[in-house]
Automatic annotation (TrEMBL):
Keywords: Carbohydrate metabolism, Coiled coil, Isomerase. PANTHER family: FUCOSE ISOMERASE, L-FUCOSE ISOMERASE C-TERMINAL DOMAIN-CONTAINING PROTEIN. It comes from Halanaerobium saccharolyticum subsp. saccharolyticum DSM 6643. Residues 19-64 form a coiled coil. This is L-fucose isomerase-like protein. Signal peptide: none annotated. GO terms for molecular function: intramolecular oxidoreductase activity, interconverting aldoses and ketoses. SUPFAM superfamilies: FucI/AraA C-terminal domain-like, FucI/AraA N-terminal and middle domains.
């Protein structure tokens, strides 16, 4: 399900053009946009023609606390109008131009695209770069999804449990720079806060039965099963009780030593239930997963480019055993395994389904954010090693992908989802003035 947002809609016009036709087109647009899921609209129903109309519209949209506004150039219009709206709102704007109508008596009827040109020039020269242009009869739903991303991050509360994993300096991030860039807040918790969290025996028992139903548990003992169930219940309650949008976890080395197992299997289970949990204390990985979820991608997961075959042109998108268990390929044996951390790993162990996929990484370096984007297709494979993984062939040759990653210093975790969601992230990056690495 996509992130719910509040969207303002306003249509500008001028009576020297065919504003009556613009009214009819605007009425149809109002019907069409209400078919799009999870949007609360504030619609200025009449055409905005005079400066006073724009001022009143801006106040109404502002009081509704919209996340963004779509400004339609129903016809060409006064240049004041967009600036009056922007002066009050200071939110992302879609400049929407309509297709020109057939000429009537040798006169251009709408001149809508010229209105978009006027608005874009006024915004650009006044210092506003948070606009996107759409020409056509339908709203740009990729722009809407970009607003979902922006809103999800702005309203997010991400927890970090412990710290980043030992030696993973590249997963460090500047919290206040992140707040400045996205508006999200990060709360810190100690590992003991989760390990000591109280859960009921009934909750643990229910999780044990759930794990038995999903996984082959012959590779672990009863104590390990109980610990996975106990930790699964702890994760759920901890995230819910602290009202967290996502949680980044320092999953090693302390978990195996102090709790008796690593948290991988519990994280696999919880992620299949739409909880965002990032391993190795990777907050920006959690941000990336949260953003994928905002645009409706199913159960995002973190993976490494672990095996890169330059001759056969593929990479293995692997991790030690933490991917959501609902993404199992349905063919191999899906199991819990203790191969990791000296027998105390207790990780999920399965091949993931093969399908079209896309990847994302929000990644900061030297005070600036970048967006790493790629897409590709999964290749069926046999279960040949431990952990959770699938073989992927990218749209670009793997040599090019690897070259981009290492030359730009992109962190080694990527958020992976099935389906292509890259267009919305390109628009989002443009609105934020972030570099796109693609």
């Amino acid at each position: 399900m996509k992130k719910e947002i509040k969207l303002g809609i306003v249509c500008l016009g001028r009576k020297t053009f065919d504003f009556e036709a613009a009214k009819d087109l605007y009425a149809d647009i109002q019907k069409d946009i209400k078919e799009i899921e999870n949007i609360e609209y504030t619609i200025i129903e009449e055409l905005v023609i005079e400066v006073e109309d724009a001022q009143a519209a801006a106040e109404k949209l502002n009081s509704a606390n919209v996340d963004a506004v779509a400004v339609i150039s129903g016809t060409f219009h006064l240049g004041h109008l967009i600036l009056e709206i922007d002066k009050v709102l200071r939110k992302p704007i879609l400049l929407w131009g309509l297709n020109e109508l057939p000429y009537n008596g040798g006169k251009i009827r709408l001149n809508s695209v010229c209105g978009v040109n006027l608005n874009s020039s006024n915004l650009y020269k006044s210092g506003n770069r948070k606009y996107h242009v759409n020409i056509g009869d339908k709203i740009d739903e990729d722009w809407i999804d970009a607003i979902r991303i922006n809103t999800a991050l702005k309203n997010a509360k991400i927890g970090i449990l412990g710290y980043r994993a030992k030696g993973f300096f590249n997963l460090s991030m500047d919290e206040l720079n992140s707040f400045d860039q996205t508006g999200l807040l990060i709360d810190h918790y100690e590992l003991s806060d989760l390990m000591n969290y109280q859960v009921s025996d009934d909750e643990v028992k229910a999780r044990e039965e759930q794990l038995k139903d999903i996984f082959d548990i012959s590779g672990i003992n009863e104590t390990q099963l109980n610990k996975v169930a106990n930790l699964s219940a702890k994760f759920k309650n901890f995230i819910d009780d602290n009202n967290l949008s996502a949680l980044a976890v320092r999953c090693w080395p302390e978990f195996a030593d102090n709790f008796g197992i690593s948290p991988c299997a519990a994280m696999s289970l919880l992620q299949s239930e739409d909880y965002i949990i990032a391993c190795e204390g990777d907050v920006e990985g959690a941000m990336s997963m949260l953003a994928h979820q905002a645009v409706g991608a199913e159960t995002p997961f973190l993976a490494d480019l672990s095996q890169v075959d330059l001759e056969e042109d593929y990479a293995l998108l692997w991790h030690c055993g933490v991917a959501p268990c609902n993404l199992w390929d349905g063919k191999c044996n899906i199991a819990l395994d203790s191969y990791f951390a000296g027998g105390r790993g207790v990780t999920a162990d399965f091949v993931m389904k093969s399908d079209d996929f896309s990847v994302l990484r929000f990644d900061s370096a030297q005070g600036k954010y970048r967006v790493f984007l790629q897409k590709g297709e999964g290749i069926e494979m046999e279960k040949e090693l431990k952990g959770t993984y699938f073989k992927g062939r990218f749209e670009k040759n793997i040599n090019e992908v690897l070259d981009m990653v290492v030359k730009k210093g992109v962190a080694h975790h990527i958020s992976v989802v099935y389906g292509d969601y890259t267009a919305a992230f390109e628009i989002f990056a443009d609105l934020k003035n972030w570099e796109v690495i693609r």
